[in-house]
Amino acid sequence: MASGLPLRHPTQGFNASQQLIKSDRGGMLTMSDDNVMMKQIVGTHAPDGREIDVKPLLHLVEDILKRATLQIDTSLTAHAELEDTTHQVNFVSMIDALSYTIDRISCEIAYKALGGTDAHATTVSLCNLLPSYSWEAKLVLTMAAFALNYGEFWLLAQIYSSNELAKSMAILKQLPNIIEQSGPLKARFDALNNLIKVMMDVTRCVVEFKDLPTSYISQEVPALSTAMTHIPTAVYWTMRSVVACATQITAITTMGHEFSISTTDVWELSTLAYKLNNILEHLRKQLAACYEYIDEKRNVETFQMLKNLFETIHIDNMKVLKALIYAKDDIQPLIDGSSKKRVHLDVLRRKNVLLLISGLDILNDELSILEQIYNESRQHGARLDSQYELVWVPIMDHSVQWSDTVNEKFKSMQSTMPWFTVYHPSVIEKPVIRFIKEVWHFRNKPILVVLNPQGKLVCPNALHMMWIWGSNAFPFTSLREESLWREETWRLELLVNGIDPVILNWIKEGKYIFLYGGDDIEWVRKFTNNARAVAKEARVPLEMVYVGKSSKREKIRRLMATITAEKLSYIWQDLTMIWFFWTRIESMLYSKIQLGKLDDHDPMMQEIKKLLSYNREGGWAVLSKGSNVVVNGHSSTVLPTLVEYDLWKDQVP
């Protein structure tokens, strides 16, 4: 050793690092020092504009540090397996270009740690080695240099007992002593591992900022500009933590047992971890704000794209359906209601598609009637079968917590549907929900949007048509709706079609039929008894059916039980039929409104409006002879007329 470095007693290095740890206690906590130091660090930064993809290197560093720390989770090995050979080729050439720099940093850290140089001065000297690199590249290169030293230390520690070469090298590095003393050193290694974890988290976070898509976010955005001003500080303190970790390892290998029983505690490492954690928290907050901003921009773009899509002519409906339901091909976004198997959107290609859009609060009544109509359309053979496909599009607010209860409700609804369903509400993206709400005016009530085989919107809500005419309204265009109304007249079939074949038979037989409703049992008793007495005396065949009320479900259920018990009249046993009766009448009004054909002088509409107003205010009755409606009156006029039968009985013939 005639020439070269002067020999130093191990305690000299140790004392120097002791000094470094002690002298630094004040420095790490004062803000003004921070500002002075940061000016110095920023002064070394002179990037030359070259771009380096540091992610493959970062994955490697991550893998080394995870395996090197004492408690290694063997499942965390995925990062090391670089995706494909081309990636590896690029990676090898990148390592070739950077290995000299990584070695230089590694040597600089090791030399300064042995010499006991002040941590700040060492960090500045590292920055001086890397002036032309971007901030994230400086950081990843420094972490790589640290991983090289730290990885070598732990590689020897892990294999020296089973490898002769490693054993000899380990003895030179005093490793057997260190491993034997691992008990007293445990707190120090724990603090090291903890700090290394935070250093990795900060590094990942800094690299993530670099990866933000510049087409959606620029430096002018407050969240990003704030982060950019803090990144040099994050890089500085992470590099300084690298220096501190390296100093600790050097002190352990040069002092071994003596260091473990020294009075020095893990104060410096935990203070650095605390500081870095604060920096990390702040950066993560800004990163989340950046992602939110990017999402918002993307959502606006998607929303606009959807609007444009519906103004364009297409050869089939695939583009439109993909934009509405699921754009990528990596999953099968639908479930086939008949087979309960997952399927691709292709099953809907060039078909008329009816989108049933609703929340999870869609009524069982609605589903059971829709199922009835859907199944009937399928029974008419191939002619109707190929006419339309139905798809349930469940709309859930993305801000609502998806709980087990919600999931169970969704699954149970989905399992009962015989048509196609979107396999999960999360598939439907935010901008699509916005489009459905703003452009198609979906609020909370279900809507049935009709798209033709080219994906063109032919009806923004065909539910009213579906309730009034069922599949007969196909292809659900406003032209078809107008022609169906032209064929309609004010007759009893209009009110009861598709609900109850019994009444349709009475109509065929030309009987007198009373359709009546209300929620006052006393009025019902008087009305039915008087009506029956009048029919008997006038010798006319009379049938009566109770159709309840659109609300007060429980009260109506009790009333129906009384009507049955007292044999007052015929009733619909199923409350769904009562719901459907009133929904059809409301749909007639909505249909006319949607067509813009609501004419106050239209006699049919006047009668429909009358019924809807009676439904709100007590009892009422509609009398027909066969198909022809004779009377549509409120309880206040119908009952007195029946009671005063003697006054008009001469007119009966």
TrEMBL record:
One of its GO terms (biological process) is phloem development. Residues 480-652 form the Sieve element occlusion C-terminal domain. It holds the Pfam family SEO_N. Residues 32-314 form the Sieve element occlusion N-terminal domain. This is Sieve element occlusion N-terminal domain-containing protein. It comes from Salix viminalis.
